[in-house]
Fold this protein.
Amino acid sequence: MLKPSKVAVLGGGSFGTAIANIMANNGHSVCLWMRNDQRADEINQQHINRSYLPDYPLNEQLQASTDLAAAVQGCEIVFMAVPSSSSRAVAKELVAHIADGCILISTTKGIEPENFKLMSQVLAEEIPQARIGVLSGPNLAKEIAAGQITGTVIASEDDELNETIQTLLHSGTFRVYASNDVFGVELGGALKNIYAIISGMAAAMGTGQNTISMLMTRSLAEMSRFAVHKGADPMTFLGLAGVGDLIATCMSPLSRNYRVGYQLGEGKALDDIVAELGQVAEGVNTLKLIKQQSDELGIYMPLVSALYDVIYNKKTIKEVVGAMMFSEQNRDVEFTVQ
Ligand SMILES: NC(=O)C1=CN([C@@H]2O[C@H](COP(=O)(O)OP(=O)(O)OC[C@H]3O[C@@H](n4cnc5c(N)ncnc54)[C@H](OP(=O)(O)O)[C@@H]3O)[C@@H](O)[C@H]2O)C=CC1
Ligand SMILES: O=C(CO)COP(=O)(O)O
């Protein structure tokens, strides 16, 4: 197992700051790279990220920098915590500064529109000399920063990498479980954002617990159906990166995707909601990509189609719910253990 002398986190938003702070609290030398000088100064001098985690003082040893080369110099482990829309651009800048065999962990829960690439695939293309893993789970950044007990998943086929990241991040409030199903873990993190939007919408409409339970369970069935069709292990969806993350984001107003859904349910326009949010809600783009893929591959995804109809085909929620209630009634559980 590798014991790193220095770690970098790229992306000084909510999640990047939260995980950088865990590692600094664990006594590691951590540099958080961001593109805003004022915010970097604020972290270095006042130990706070006022724009993203204003209520949580950060570890005084956590360093911030806007110089990418300096931030990653001498690092054996680098975490990527920028939105999916920026991952490839950041990776292209990063490649020249990454040593052979450096561990590179993607935490980004999104999909690249061109060729439907997940972020670990983007990183592997751009930085072939790195050992790549994926971190995903029910990880609302504000709860992590507040010290709420949290679990996550590190996924890689490389068991030494998994063990290294488990040890690096493990704390009295943070547990890290290992998986070898990189594709399933990563896809779970991206897909659940769609269903968080739907759940937020349902909450705004005052739905009861029966409806919410049905919605979340059918969401899990639908996302697993898609992922298994694409080659993931259905069992992964019973873990923290599947049902765990689905529960957290479908139930919490701390989820940006849930908040987008809630405001859609209140009748606001998507463009206004996204502009006001000021943070990334990956589910909006993921919805378009999954709708396109499920149509192309003939994968039955009624919840995705319904949300797509509401957002992009301007159907009313009442209309799409009505149509779903009278569609064919199907099996409850689709997968069987051999
Ligand atoms: N793995 C997990 O369990 C979790 C993953 N996530 C995922 O992590 C990703 C980031 O989420 P989160 O931190 O919450 O998002 P935020 O919106 O809070 O922050 C995004 C950060 O990325 C920065 N950024 C965007 N583009 C660039 C760029 N080209 N170069 C440098 N920095 C850039 C932004 O900088 P600026 O402030 O200057 O705009 C901002 O600091 C998302 O994909 C999200 O889904 C989120 C929570 C948990
Ligand atoms: O992925 C997350 C928590 O696990 C964060 O969700 P949002 O991106 O919807 O805020």
